[in-house]
Amino acid sequence: MPDVSRRQLANAIRFLSMDAVQAANSGHPGMPMGMADIAEVLWNDYMKHNPANPEWADRDRFVVSNGHGSMLQYSLLHLTGYELPMEELKHFRQWGSRTPGHPENGVTPGVETTTGPLGQGIANGVGMAIAEKELANEFNRDGHTIVDHYTYVFAGDGCLMEGISHEACSLAGTLGLGKLILFYDDNGISIDGELEDWFTDDTLKRFEGYEWQTMAIDGHNPDAVIKAIEAAKAEPNKPTLIACKTTIGYGSPNKAGSEETHGAALGEDEVAVTRQALGWQWEPFHVPDEIYQAWDTRQAGQAAEEAWQARLEAYRRDYPELAAEFERRMAGRLPEDFTETMNGIISEFREAGASDATRKHSGKMLNTIVERVPEVLGGSADLAPSNNTKWKDAPIITPSRETRGTHGRYLHYGVREFGMAAMMNGFCLHRGYRPYGGTFLIFSDYMRNGLRLSALMHQPVIYVFTHDSIGLGEDGPTHQPIEQLPSLRAIPNLTVYRPADGVETAVGWRLALEAGDGPVALVLTRQKTGALEHTDETVAGAARGAYVLSEAEGGDPEGILIASGSEVDLALAAQKQLAEQGKRVRVVSMPSWELFEAQDEGYRLSVLPDGLAKRVAVEAAESFGWERYVGREGRAIGIHRFGESAPGDTVMEKFGFVPETLVEAYNELD
Q1: Is 512 helix (H, G, I), strand (E, B) or coil?
Q2: Paired residues of 42 in beta bridges
Q3: Is-contact 413 401, C-beta < 8 A?
Q4: 520 φ, ψ to 5°?
């Protein structure tokens, strides 16, 4: 390695960050300047990674939870040899660049997760650390260690002020995640200024209360950083918080230590005097060869991966079936017999023809799935008996790491909905598990931003939302969802699936597990629904988002009733009453708008022909959005106020969710 000082290596991060923010005239230079010394030690002395293969299974995971400091991460990736050329740094925050304003998974090689909404990166890291622990328990054997890596997280004051940090870090301490190391950028500054008027927590005591190992260091002292990391690695049974006292905008003569370096470019004059102050004589976006050589990790990274590949090959010789399973899981491939197995399960539901709540159908489906899809890992936000999300004899994820050969697959998240969403994102991003998490639909509001990031990152998280309408009854308006369904449908890349019976529920689970490009929300009832009469065609139609469930008798249909979930029963009953009046009406079950919209025009028109303008849609939720399917001449029956506390059947009746309401609405269209 060339004779280059640590401070010079850290300054390369500082000036690439300053120059990129200045060129964009937008961004946050202060955090990269303040955390550069910490990053230099971590990435040059400890990080196990291979720039030539950012997807290497046993790499250390690095998360920048304070994602506004994205140029720190981009600088590290560029300097160590990832496919992120200088031209991309010059186009920071510009259209089509690989250096967006906040780190985005799938855009920039080496970025593990999309961060920016503060605190979520911490929770992603907790999910990653749990995944590492459970995969190690599941696959490692005596003499064969193929899962053995750390999760490092950078975070700032804002991350720790957000409530999600409490949710995630509390659980991380309970689970004893010894391979999770959190670096807290303790600089005392946020966008609004000095924190002393609004953030005076004793952070170390707080984390000690979570059962973390804690320490406070000078974040600009490389020796102190080394000592802290060594101490963190020496503690196998607790996650570690390293509170790093830093100066935001370190090196800037006139702006260091102030909010002026937080969310805006320093200005050309200040960048120039900072160059003088830190002895960096090179022009913008220039890094001298000796500094590039000192940072270059490509050879060391390749050697580290090759050593791991040799261990994997030895493992494959001694445990061929386990090795094949590990590689399948890390590649994100479903079991070879998945489709055949799922179709068999769906057939069983069809033959059973049971009338029950769809949450209970979901629980039965889950008990069958877990035996056949070993990567399924689930949990609930302290509502498992209500969500039906815990299967029989589910192995629980516990604090102990001394369980080689056994592992947990069920996680008690506690009452931590937001943390659960972000941790599930971490599971997916880590690879090896397909997570699902359960709560009431109303509490999707608590987890909305984590769910949104699932969609933004195209991660196949499965959200199990039960108690999906006013039909839940006595808990009343605080628990009865009204606006949640349309608001979830507004999220790009999220598939919402609200099944009407056991068969549709089974189809929904199959689709959720097959999904590879985004999350799926299964929206389930508390109350019983009827067992629909299915054919091969209707089962296939359920997978396409909408289908003709019951055709009009006695000739071509004159109109259409459309429904989802428990209201499909109402549509069928209304169809019967209308038939008695001589009206020929088709019933369409529409469990998923998103899947239906993805079908070709011919299929969509076969279900909802343009010539049938008499349409009534019904759903026990705010009706916003249904106009796209009923048109200007149709009618959407929904709810436009909050609910009431009473038995579920009573509430549904009082709000007009009875067949007669549909019949009356249909007849008014004449």
Answers
A1: helix
A2: none
A3: no
A4: -130, 135
| 318: Cα within 13 Å, side-chain hemisphere | 13
Across the chain, how many H-helices and E-strands are there?
A: 27, 20
- What rounded mean pLDDT belongs to the chain? 97
Sign (positive/negative) of CA torsion 471, 420, 484, 603? negative
Six token digits for residue 114: 């999309």
- Catalytic residue, from 417, 567, 594, 622: name it: 417
- Which phi-psi region, left, alpha or beta, contains residue 450 (left: φ > 0; alpha: ψ -120 to 50)? alpha
Radius of gyration (C-alpha) of the chain in whole angstroms: 28
pLDDT digits (tens, 9 = 90+) for 187-227: 999 999 999 999 999 999 999 999 999 999 999 999 999 99
Kindly state the average pLDDT of the residues 149-164.
98
Give the pLDDT band of residue 407 (cuts 50, 70, 90).
Answer: confident
Which pTM does this prediction carry? Answer: 0.97
CB 231, CB 240: distance < 8 Å? yes
Query: DSSP letter at 621?
Result: S
**Per-residue pLDDT reduced to its tens digit, 555-588:** 999 999 999 999 999 999 999 999 999 999 999 9
Over the stretch 21-70, which tens digit does the pLDDT of each residue have? 999 999 999 999 999 999 999 999 999 999 999 999 999 999 999 999 99
Q: Are 346 and 489 in contact (CB under 8 A)?
A: no
Is residue 76 within a helix (H) or strand (E), and if so which, with residue range? helix 70-80
> What is the pLDDT at residue 305?
98
User: If you search the block for the tokens 């609405």, which residue do you land on?
Assistant: 665
Q: Are 449 and 418 in contact (CB under 8 A)?
A: yes
Quote the strand ranges of 352-501, DSSP E: 356-357, 376-380, 410-412, 434-440, 462-466, 495-497
Q: Tell the burial category of 155 from Cβ atoms under 10 Å away from its Cβ (0-12, 13-18, 19+).
A: buried
User: Which strands sit side by side in the sheet containing 547-550, from one edge to the other?
Assistant: 547-550, 585-589, 559-563, 615-618, 635-637
Q: Which long-range contacts (CB under 8 A, 24 or more apart) does 360-365 make?
A: 360/388, 361/499, 361/501, 361/502, 361/505, 361/506, 361/524, 362/388, 362/389, 362/464, 362/466, 362/505, 362/509, 362/522, 362/524, 363/388, 363/389, 363/391, 364/502, 365/505, 365/506, 365/509
Q: For CA atoms 36, 39, 45, 51, give the dihedral sign.
A: negative
Residue 303 vs residues 54, 291, 667: alpha-carbon distances, Å? 14, 21, 75
Element (H, E) at 182: strand 180-186
Q: Which residues lie below 8 Å from residue 471, measured CB to CB, with a gap of 6+? A: 525, 526, 527, 566, 620, 648, 651, 652, 657
First to last CA, the chain: 84
| Contacts for 139 with CB less than 8 Å, ≥ 6 apart | 146, 147, 322, 325, 326
Residues making up the chain, counted from first to last = 670
Q: Is 417 a catalytic residue?
A: yes
Question: Is 11's pLDDT higher than 80?
Answer: yes
Question: Three-class SS string for 532-570?
Answer: CCCCHHHHHHHCCCCEEEECCCCCCCCEEEEECCCHHHH
Rounded percentage of the chain residues whose pLDDT exceeds 70: 99
**Closest to 4 (Cα-Cα) out of 300, 291, 282, 374:** 291
Query: Can you tell me whether residue 136 is helix, strand or coil?
Result: helix
Say how far apart CA 156 and CA 186 lie, in whole Å.
Answer: 7
Rounded-to-integer distance, Cα 415 and Cα 426, Å: 18
Instruction: With beta carbons less than 8 A apart as the criterion, state whether 668 and 636 touch.
Output: no
User: What is the per-residue burial (b if ≥16 Cβ within 10 Å, else e) of 106-116?
Assistant: eebebbbbbbb
